[in-house]
Amino acid sequence: MRKQVLFGAALLALGTAVVSSCSKDEVVIDNTPGVETPVEDGVQELILNMNSAGDGLTSRGGRPLYSSEAAQEIDKVVIKIIDRTESGHDETKGKVVRSITIENWQEVSKQYTVGGHGRMYTFKLTQDQKVPAGTYEIYAIGYTSTGSSYDFGDYESLDGTNPFSYQTQTLNSTTEAEEVFAGSIKSITVDKDGNFVLTNDNPENNVLTLHRQVAGVIGYYSNIPVLMSGGDPTILNKTNYDTYVKGLKLRLVSSRANSKLIFAGFNSGFTETGEDYKFVVNGSTPLTKDAKFAATSTTGGNNDANVLYEIELADWFINGDVNQDGMLDINDNRDKDGNRLDNWISPYSSIENLEFEEGSVFAGKFVIPFQKRMNSPKTLELQLVAKNALRNNEDTGDVYAAGSIIRSWTINLSSTDPQVKGPDGASVHARTVDETSGELKVMNPDLEELANSYSIVRNHLYTVGTKGTNDYNPDTDEPQDLSKGQELILKVNDNWELIHKMEVE
What we know:
Helix content is 4%, strand content 32%. It is mainly beta and 505 residues long. It has helices at residues 105-108, 153-157, 238-246, and strands spanning 2-4, 6-14, 44-52, 76-83, 95-102, 110-111, 119-125, 134-143, 167-170, 181-190, 196-198, 207-212, 215-222, 224-225, 248-254, 258-263, 280-281, 283-286, 306-312, 327-328, 360-367, 380-386, 390-391, 398-400, 405-413, 431-433, 440-442, 461-464, 480-481, 490-491, 502-504.
């Protein structure tokens, strides 16, 4: 048996929020059996490590999702030490015996190099702060402290003999989810000398790993058709056509959306992309549906979808389809000699080092995870929606009505994606988090994950098109071409648990 007072408090596996780019979420503490880390007498030393990997047009607390590039911008971590000894290890009856807050994370932490990136901070509990002998759970949440979508005031105040319960956050329909990290060490023992006890069988039991608690959704598109297939813009009245095109938008709708985020059921074993991943839905409380899928948009009845993001095409192509070829693309920003026309401009152009391929459009959001809907034929659908009616050439009637869905694309997972087929070829079932016990439970056995109907799960990044970094790299930027009858590709960045390659049909 090995004793160590060094406490590896957290590796934050942030998808888009807490660290620089890396393919692994790794702990930098040497916990090799037989290796002792020197510390000062009379203190318990803790090391907090964070590994990191919205439409961002508005100012908000959390980091916007602009690419699959890893980053970290949270500024606060609050750790709770929960006594599980007196409660007989009943996880519903523990009490908080210590509360540790790390402010100004970006300033007090320093970069580490194991695995390529990360930030870490060492702090010490003095003799009168040390926890006595017993068994404990260590639980922590890392987040943005100001301007945030979340309010952790009640969590921060838990101290002394406060009973502990797993934390939740609930957003309304107009508040966007943002990146947040959490994790726990379920059980760790402190001996009579005040040391954390580690064993050769579990030498890293003193490492608290915080992972991203939300999912990410990215859309990066080019060659956007503005009419139904076969539509000919040259026969239309130009004024009517321009008004129509400038009012178009792309929007991504989903079969469900949730408002409540549950911080429990952590996948603490995950440290490296593609290994020990899980498919966990830690969201609940469905939001009211505010849209329709294309197939039901003309049939009347209630809404059956939720809008995840919208892209106003006039924000990117300010003069619309200037060559009137029925397509928004690079040719609308170039004359016959190849000179720029200043018709295409990124609405994010004021943000340093944020660039996109010329003629493309982009959206990125953090999303509270949700489970697939029973009997839904699809989970995600991209739609081209007309905000303004398109009048005919004589201006006597509508070719397309205002609010109509002009085109739609189904976004699928690959039939061989690990979320659809497990390593042995068996069907996959996502798991949900029990809010009371904090444990994972299997969803309804009828809800197996399918290529077209799947859950959006925690710490997975779903992308259509490829944007690896915030700046533009022609070798790696690959916006999804919407002019072709192909499947859109959904990928998960390697700082998330798994890389999904999604397809558009």
